[in-house]
Design a protein that fits this description.
Layout lengths: L1 H16 L23 E4 L2 E5 L15 E5 L2 E4 L5 H26 L24 H8 L30 H8 L21 E7 L1 H6 L9 E7 L6 H4 L7 H6 L16 H23 L7 E2 L3 H9 L61 E7 L22 E5 L16 E4 L7 E2 L3 E3 L13
Parallel strand pairs: 8-11
Antiparallel strand pairs: 1-4, 2-3, 4-12, 5-6, 7-12, 8-9, 9-10
Protein name: Gliding motility lipoprotein GldK
Organism: Flavivirga aquatica
GO molecular function: formylglycine-generating oxidase activity
Length: 455
């Protein structure tokens, strides 16, 4: 027994000698954290504000009674997500699916890079034992092809895809590409069109709210798998306006570079959430491959409280992001893109949408928080929700309630819907020519506050 106690004492002394903490409770020290503002975003300092109607509810909806709430700091996109930015998502998914299908066919016919043709697109790493769990996760969840039996195989992205039919490298490549277009009999003007229903984005997420409410639930039961078609619905320009000629917007708005800096529309609430998931994956892939640093916070849709707090720009009891109560400046210029006169959409010098970075930003440097396009937020609509939500980071998002909140008003709305406190909704699976979105990211840390100053 004495020998055991002596050995224990010696081990304790050796452990203490090899440690820099001198036996004191100093905590585990990690790398020093330096917050990095995401590209295109603005830091919104946390704080308290009066949420809801600050003046008379002229529409008599009574769904936004005033209450004081507090939100934590977060980053928000300075502008609505543009056509160009959303096309980056679309092209990423499209190219990933094409590369996966090419690699699978190359494997099936036994082609390798040395063979040329489709062999150049063969899987880069057939041995999954050398891949990390994170790499396998990254390569298993985005293709939209369902289970293929090739999960965990690394795609070869060093070779450019070929879209010109005259330059297809071989018949196998042609076979894969041909499956992704609409049939010839559905083409016109000598141009084949992608079959957009075949381009889907798959991702998994954990329903943390459900897991927290039901402690006995198994982890696998709260991991949700989503599959979403990613192309915007361009037909909204026709369907939203009966007996109206809007074919040019249908044909060109999302595709043509002339509209690259305009806000994307025709996306559902589910597509907006899928975009957020992709943006997170895209950033994390870069972080891991180039910097080897930790994963970034997820990008997401803002809560309703976050959106209104950001829209107010630090102004308490304001009617509009610029203050109010007027929609014109002291020079007689309209402050936002909306429908100021009945039937006269061009009175504000904009017939449809305008570029995302138009008009003056609010005091948080956010553009078009009123007008241009309404914006999806991560909340479901309940007219009485303000009466029972928490006063800290309030949010209501009932998965069974498909009525999702849109905020800010749009180019086709009257001034009432531009008010920072006005609430509206649309169904989660609906797409409109006047609804877009912007994303947010949580700020790591709590020291940035608006009301009490920086701590």
């Amino acid at each position: 027994m004495k020998k055991f106690m002596l050995l224990t004492a010696v081990l304790a002394i050796l452990a203490s000698c090899g440690s820099k903490d001198r036996g004191e409770l100093v905590g585990v020290k990690g790398k020093k954290w330096h917050p990095e503002k995401p590209y295109g975003m603005e830091l919104i300092p946390g704080g308290a504000f009066i949420m809801g109607k600050a003046d008379d509810d002229l529409a008599g909806v009574h769904d936004a009674p005033a209450k004081t709430v507090t939100v934590r700091a977060f980053y928000m996109d300075a502008t609505e997500i543009t056509n160009s930015e959303y096309r980056q998502f679309v092209n990423w998914v499209r190219d990933s699916i094409l590369r996966t299908k090419l690699a699978i066919l190359a494997d099936e016919v036994g082609k390798v890079p040395e063979d040329g043709g489709i062999g150049e697109y063969a899987f880069k790493d057939a041995d999954t034992a050398n891949m990390s769990v994170y790499e396998k996760y990254m390569f298993e969840n985005y293709t939209g092809l369902g289970e293929t039996g090739y999960e965990g195989r690394k795609l070869n992205k060093d070779v450019d895809l070929v879209y010109d039919t005259a330059e297809y490298p071989d018949e196998y490549y042609t076979e894969v590409m041909d499956t992704m277009y609409l049939p010839l009999e559905e083409s016109y003007n000598g141009k084949r069109t992608w079959d957009v229903k075949k381009f889907k984005f798959q991702y998994n997420y954990m329903d943390i709210q459900e897991a927290a409410r039901n402690r006995g639930v198994k982890r696998k039961d709260v991991i949700i798998k989503e599959e979403v078609e990613i192309y915007p619905d361009t037909t909204v320009w026709i369907r939203d306006f009966s007996y109206s000629y809007n074919e040019p917007m249908h044909n060109d708005y999302f595709w043509h570079d002339a509209y690259g800096d305009y806000p994307v529309v025709g996306v559902t609430w589910k597509q907006a959430k899928a975009f957020c998931e992709w943006r997170t994956i895209n950033k994390n892939t870069y972080q891991k491959s180039k910097r080897g640093s930790a994963m970034v916070n997820t990008f997401r849709l803002p809560s309703e409280a976050e959106w209104e707090y950001a829209a107010r720009g630090g102004l308490q009891a304001a009617t509009y992001p610029w203050g109010g109560p007027y929609t014109k400046s002291d020079r007689g210029c309209f402050m936002a893109n909306f429908k100021p006169v009945r039937g006269d959409y061009a009175a504000d010098q904009a017939l449809y949408t305008v570029e995302a970075k138009s008009y003056d930003p609010n005091d948080y440097n956010l553009y078009n928080m009123a007008g241009n396009v309404s914006e999806w937020v991560n909340a479901s609509y309940d007219p009485s929700s303000y009466q029972y939500t928490s006063t800290i980071n309030p949010n209501v998002n009932d998965e069974e309630n498909t009525r999702k909140i849109v905020r800010g008003g749009s180019w086709k709305d009257v001034a009432y819907f531009l008010q920072v406190s006005s609430r509206d909704y649309e169904y989660a699976d609906s797409a409109r020519s006047y609804i877009g979105f912007r994303t947010v990211q949580d700020y790591m840390g709590t020291q940035v506050t608006k009301n009490g100053g920086d701590k």
